[in-house]
Amino acid sequence: MTIIEKNTSNQYIIRIEKALEKRNVSELCNNLFDLHIDNSLSDFEFFDVIGDIYQQAPAFFMLKIYPKIRRKFGKIYRNEGMRVMDKYILEKFCLDEGEQIKHEFYGTLKLKVPKKYVIRIINGTFYVTNRRIIAQGKLGFDLDLSTGQAILEFGGGSTKNPKKALKHYISSSKSCYGYSIPIKNLYKLIRFTTGSKIKKLSYLVPQKTKITINISKKDNIGDKLLTILNEFQWPE
């Protein structure tokens, strides 16, 4: 039984469940926002409702619901409040068995797959686990059309349409509340410093995917992040 089903006495939760079944984005979000205003649940009970929506329909949630939640609740909870919500939902609904959050920080990330696509997360929050980085924030997704060819292939076809490509990317990626960034078997880990402080790190993962992380000035954690990433490097 889902968390939503356990709370059927709340009219908003009943409506959220029905909207989720119909994949009605506006109805779901409106009732979710009204539920928050209603203040009938504690913060963590409310986070449970969000986590349950994600768990029932991960791809739909990430494509249609997650961006609206970021905009709405980012204004209400601010950075620290969103950090509490994200970490709670990740640990309860998303992490694999044995996966643990080792570190978290603010920053900007760029992931580039040569001749395919570029992902950008600006001013996001990043959770480093013992298996990956999970990014929270607004996703920018662009196809690399420099070759003049259809880039992202799927289901026997291909597309030059960024929206279709993003939909396929999220639908075909492993389920995650947020955006999963690889760190396993990384190589060519490079640090960029300003004075004695590490301000940027970059590395490659298989298929020559390049990941660049710019660390927020608020988080002086470059050395710690470098140490963690070093653990995932291929031996020379």
* Amino- and carboxy-terminal Cα gap: 49 Å
SSE succession: HHHHHEEEEEHEEEEH
- pLDDT averaged over residues: 88
**Computed Rg:** 19 Å
Description:
- The strands form 2 sheets. Strands 6-3-2-1-9-8-7 form a 7-stranded antiparallel beta sheet.
- The termini are far apart.
- It is α+β, with helices and mostly antiparallel strands.
- The chain is globular and about 55 Å long.
- Helix 2 packs antiparallel against helix 3, helix 3 (25-38) packs parallel to helix 5 (58-94) and helix 4 (43-56) packs across helix 5 (58-94).
- The chain contains 7 helices and 9 strands; from the N terminus they run αααααβββββαββββα.
Task: Please give a quick description of this structure.
The protein is of the alpha+beta class. Helices cover 43% and strands 31% of the residues. The protein has seven helices and nine strands; from the N terminus they run H-H-H-H-H-E-E-E-E-E-H-E-E-E-E-H.
